[in-house]
Amino acid sequence: xxxxxAAVHAAVASVDDPEYPGLSIVDLGLLEQLMVSxxxxxxxxxxxxFSGCPALRHIGxxxxxxxxxxxxxxxxDVVWLATPAWTISRVSxxxxxxxxxxxxxxxxxxxxxxxxxPRPAPVPCPMCATxxxxxxxxxxxRCRSIHHCSSCSESVEVLRSSP
Amino acid sequence: MARAxxxxxxxxxxxxxGGIVERTDAMPDEFRNAVFRFIxxxxxxxxxxxxxxxxxxxxxxxxxxxxxVLAKTQDEFGHAHLxxxxxxxxxxxTRRQMLEDLFAGRSRFHNVFHYRVETWTDxxxxxxxxxxxxxASQQAVFKNCSYGPYRRILKRIIAEEGFHMRLGEDRMMKxxxxxxxxxxxxxxxxxxxxxxxxxxxxxDSKPNDLLLRWHIKSERNEVLRARWVQKFVPLxxxxxxxxxxxxxxxDDDGRWHAGPIDWEPLKKTFANVGPxxxxxxxxxxxxxxxxxxxxxxxxxxxxxxPAAGSTKSNVSV
Lengths: 163, 317
Fold this sequence. Notes:
Chain A has 163 residues and is an alpha/beta fold. In chain A, 21% of the residues lie in helices and 26% in strands. Chain B is built from twelve helices and two strands.
């Protein structure tokens, strides 16, 4: 990365997910494309965790604002891409650790579908590592399900790929 | 590891030193009951809030707002689900008992869900005024909450509710910059929702409020209410709207103070005899019965396809 690319990347990384303050959208895996031309024109392609997410506009505005303030950026284009689909494999190891530590949120490593196929393997509890039982495949949003730990009885949201 | 305390004094000094109580601890019954009631009230309110939001899915103008309302509906039910789970874990009522009590009008939910949301601008006023008041209360609980499971879930709920409030703020600004009709409609909604929002904070806290003493709440009701008034009066004035309070005044330091508050409407909502309580409760019960087939289908799937290497998934309530 040249210095301008690095500065733009850092600006995008400074934007947090609005529902997980402190968690960068880059660590969450939303940044798909970053192109900086020699004349300072920047093009950024983001992907949503699920297409109906109501935070897209908010995140897009925050990225625009952050990148516009980088020196030597002459033009900026921020778009939401239809492909590839976001999956939980895009979440960085640091982000997974942070979600477990700060939000008691686990990350499902399988690619579950509530509609067909076998149930995914149990997700370990972020508090005590005991395999949890699924309470509902549908949590507070399409990218989260609700699990319960029979050992420490923690109620846990699990971030997952949207079905 | 379960902990126990010799006396209520020992327990209280543990709390005063910033101690966090976990589910397996041998907490005093009074504490268990008080925390349970508080979480049940919160869970019921999220459930009723989700239903309010759901009512507006077909009527919400524009695709972008509709997506947000859909997502917010799922958010509120998700919050209710999590809160009912941690409340049930306290061993006082099961989740089914809590829901049955809610649908039979035997338990409480927040006053604001005892009123009818008449128009889209009402819905905006709810998102802007009611959500901000509820968020201020939740933040004050989270700040110092001594019950661990509730504290951890509140952290996520607050981040999500904060996002709802921003959506409400966006919509409010759009209406404020809109036509005369839109502005007049929003003013009418402020007039309807101002007092219920203010009353959401409750009457002045009693000197011996146990929730304050046990570090569930961190601030007195009247302090939270005054802070909210101080923030929202100038904000609404700056957009050219008025506040339906003849007693509203500014002190010498420029701080805004609400006039005398009539607590009768709040008491009525506590007794489930508010303006829209009956319809709200019967709607909630009807919704529950209409969706029985979904739960049955999920339960039968859980029966036939157990998770590999785990016990049967529990999706019942």
